[in-house]
Prior knowledge:
Elements: E1 6-17, H1 56-68, E2 72-73, E3 76-77, E4 80-83, E5 93-96, E6 103-104, E7 107-110, E8 120-131, E9 135-139, E10 142-146, E11 153-159, H2 166-182, E12 195-205, E13 215-220, H3 223-242, E14 251-255, E15 260-263, E16 276-277, E17 284-285, H4 288-296, H5 302-313, H6 317-323, H7 327-337, H8 344-362, H9 366-369, H10 373-384, H11 390-403, H12 407-413, H13 422-435, H14 437-444, H15 451-461, H16 468-480
The chain binds zinc ion.
Zinc ion (ZN) is lined by residues 23, 26, 28, 40-41, 43-44, 151.
Amino acid sequence: MSDNAYEAIIGLEVHTHLMTRSKLFCGCSAGFGAGPNENVCPVCMGMPGVLPVLNRHAVELAIRAGLAAHCEIAPESIFDRKSYFYPDLPKGYQISQYELPLCKGGYIELPAHSEGAEPRRIRLTRIHMEEDAGKNIHESGASLVDFNRSGVPLVEIVSEPDIRSADEAGAYLRELRSILRYIEASDGKMEEGGLRCDVNVSVRKRGAAEFGVKTEIKNLNSFRFVEKAIEHEVARQIDILEAGGRIAQETHLWDPVREVTRPMRSKEFANDYRYFPEPDLPPLRVPPDLVEAIKTAMPELPADQRARFVRELGLTAYEAAVLTQDRDLGAYFETMLAAGLKNHRTAANWVMTEVLRVVNEAARPLADAAPLAIESGELLKLVETGAISLNAAKTAFAAMCKSGKGADATVAELGLAQVSDEGAIAAACDQVIAAEAAKVAEYRGGRDKLFGFFVGQVMKAMGGKGNPKVVNEILKRKLSG
Ligand SMILES: [Zn+2]
């Protein structure tokens, strides 16, 4: 932030696809990756005379999202028509929820990354359901429309203007995505349009009670773009105010190439959507026992898993936050522990360094890039029992990522097992002591520093496979004798 005298006021509107098999109001597949206009029917093409039928599973997922975000679930909500004209919207309106959304209030708690820090709560205004539009494609001088996405169920998650920086917006989005993935409501795949974000930004003098004039940045499709666009927009607004100017209430687009926001032409957005209740759908009534059933079946949420990792496994707040940023990562860690590991923090560090490194390097999902979690656990178990060293485990792990073989087989194949047998180690110590009589005399005369030299010689004699702990013990005993 270029000027500390100002404070940024940020609210986010996140759209995310719900993971249903079919669309919101028809039986077409909601899947991604089909050929253009393969998943369409008269309903999602907006043909005259068709009637929408609400997808029950989509409603249940939206309720799950609402409960996970501590929202109040409305016993009755209404679908509305949001009218506007665009080539990707053949009906001329989008079915959405306006005055009476499914979920109201609630909050998202951002993980504290340091001990004792107060978690930040970002309040939500609402979560409502709506259908997605199709997709315009402009290529080789032609404009094409693909309606596969038309009618795919979305929730829009609207926050209060509680966010104060680009970093905090990023933390909010990461936590939101994590929650949606934990509850299997959304896969949050930004690259497939699975999570999109509109940002409202204003600035005010620190300590001022009134909000400044806000601008809206539309349709950001990566966390990085959200953070960059906020940084740019906050700086732009401060510059205008500092120069004595006024902020115009505008809608902007982010230009990811030039890394600037630019105002949309006023023609590009018309704010009069002429909302009115969708006459083809009755009010959505959610009986309390349905809400209770969904609550009961709710999986553990990232915040609860974090708290449990700290409370029961002795992890730091930071470690717990990293491990719960993704559902698969938390599950990987817990499966590793199931191998019977005693040192939870070593396992946590293993996931945060070795496992995350191969995932990042391979740029593939965890399940493809890393060995089975239980095999990672078995590998660390071999370290705990002293069968192999931590360095040998790293070597074995790299091989396991490529071969897909198990821990025991890999350690045997690479000959990584370390020798803990006291007889073998004692013999190697005797051999070194006999060969280095002069140095032994020096050591016994008080040159303690030579101890490392003897350890090195014993390890060399054993091909690097002596258990360092046992080597140290036996060597110390023999040299002092
Ligand atoms: Zn359809």
